[in-house]
Amino acid sequence: MEQPSRPLLEISGLHTGFDTFDGRVRAVDGVDLEVHAGKTLCVVGESGCGKSVTARSILRLVEDSGSIDAGTITWHGDGAPFDILSLDPRDKRLQRLRGGDIGMIFQEPAASLLQLRTIGAQLIETLRIHTGLDKRAARARAVELLDSVGIPDPQRRIDAYPFQLSGGMCQRAMIAIALCANPSLLIADEPTTALDVTTQARILDLIRSLQAEHRMAVMFITHDLGVVAELADEVAVMYLGRVVERAPVDEIFADPKHPYTKALLASVPVLGRDRRRDLPTIPGAVPNPLHRPSGCSFHPRCAEAIAGKCDVDAPPEVNFGGGRTAECVLYETEGAKA
Ligand code: SF4
After folding, report:
1. What mean pLDDT do residues 81-110 have?
2. What is the average pLDDT across 251-255?
3. Mean pLDDT for the stretch of residues 62-70
4. Would you say residue 78 has pLDDT above 90?
């Protein structure tokens, strides 16, 4: 049996919130996660479940109105482990993590690239800071990287400004920047959404080959359960700021435990399914985090909710062993309560 790989990153009790005119929003409400070297953790859930805020909290890139209120994020890189959240903002270790040990592909590449600098300048700068290449070597490497992410005519496009490129090309340029320093951990937030299927397949292949070469860990945020099936070793399902289920990928597809996971999987179109039957959907929408439902926050949408219990008590986190957990009252008598 394969031995579990060491955790590279450990998130424990993470709470991140935002001030709004109506009050404080708890976007991330007690997340525990581990990412292992050489493995891919896919984080899934509807929009507004806290996936992107969790990812941005790792590099402390939370917007101005937000702050990380509690928790630890421990980095177990080559040296002694340290808590990223306790570092001084000017600490060299934080600068080394951003773009060096941890590469991040943002959801909005056009907003994340500097519009008044060419993509080449941004790529070469990151290469020079984190790999020590001289200007000429960094430019040659930048052209190679742009080619590897499928940018046609990279010799010419390297001198283009982001506003001269399509959204898909900006996305690919951002992927090249995130991967340029051979990071130990790649955080990819919906990285292939704007790309056609051929380019998406190319990017996924590139990520897989880097993983095989460098034992790169990947935290991949996506809505696409097809990509999850293809890429993930482990899956974390998030709902309203919490991880409601975690499991190895095969187990989550074969035997989902949490009613939310079951509903997500049931709503995926399957080739050959009876076309006369409507595709199941999850009723309602993710609630406004300012007005969280009492008890289990999924209970107003849950097909298996128990009246008088699920709307009253917060569900226990049940540990099934083998890396499986679920926050649901239905399994109270199974596994061990975490
Ligand atoms: Fe549904 Fe109750 Fe489980 Fe929540 S605790 S997911 S409402 S069955």
Report:
1. 90
2. 95
3. 90
4. no
pLDDT, tens digit, 9 for 90 and up, residues 206-228: 888 888 888 899 999 998 888 89
Q: Pick the more confident residue, 271 or 314.
A: 314
Residue 82 CB–ligand 1 contact under 6 Å:
no
What number is the average pLDDT over the span 5-28? 92
Share the mean pLDDT of the chain: 90
Q: By the 8 A CB rule, do 246 and 237 touch?
A: yes
Q: How far is the CA of 329 from the centre of ligand 1 (A)?
A: 6
For the Cβ of 296 lying below 6 angstroms from any atom of ligand 1, the answer is yes
What does pTM read for this prediction?
0.90
Q: Rounded to whole angstroms, what are the CA distances from 7 to 34, 77, 266, 268? A: 6, 9, 31, 31
Residue 7, ligand 1, Cβ within 6 A:
no
Q: What angle do CA 200, 201, 206 make, to 5 degrees?
A: 95
- Does 286 or 336 have the greater pLDDT score? 286
Does the beta carbon of 329 sit less than 6 angstroms from any atom of ligand 1?
yes
> Is the CB of 256 within 6 Å of ligand 1?
no
What strands lie across the sheet with 234-239, from one edge to the other? Answer: 102-105, 185-189, 217-221, 40-44, 234-239, 242-248, 324-327, 317-321, 336-337
Distance CA(19)–CA(37), nearest Å, equals 35
Q: Which residue out of 304, 309, 337 has the highest number of ligand 1 atoms within 8 Å of its CB and is therefore the one to mutate? A: 304
Token pair of 61 as six digits:
């890139």
Residue whose Cα lies nearest atom 3 of ligand 1: it is 328
- Domain boundary assignment for the chain: 1-101+183-270+278-283, 113-180
User: Can you tell me the mean pLDDT for 25-54?
Assistant: 94
Distance of CA 309 to the CA centre of its chain: 32
The alpha carbon of 284 is separated from its chain's Cα centroid by a whole number of angstroms, namely: 24
In angstroms, what CA-CA distances link 26 with 68, 120, 188, 272? 10, 38, 23, 41
Distance 178 CA to ligand 1 centre (A): 38
Query: Which atom, in ligand 1's list, is nearest to the CA of 297?
Result: 4
Topology of domain 1-101+183-270+278-283, CATH: Rossmann fold (3.40.50)
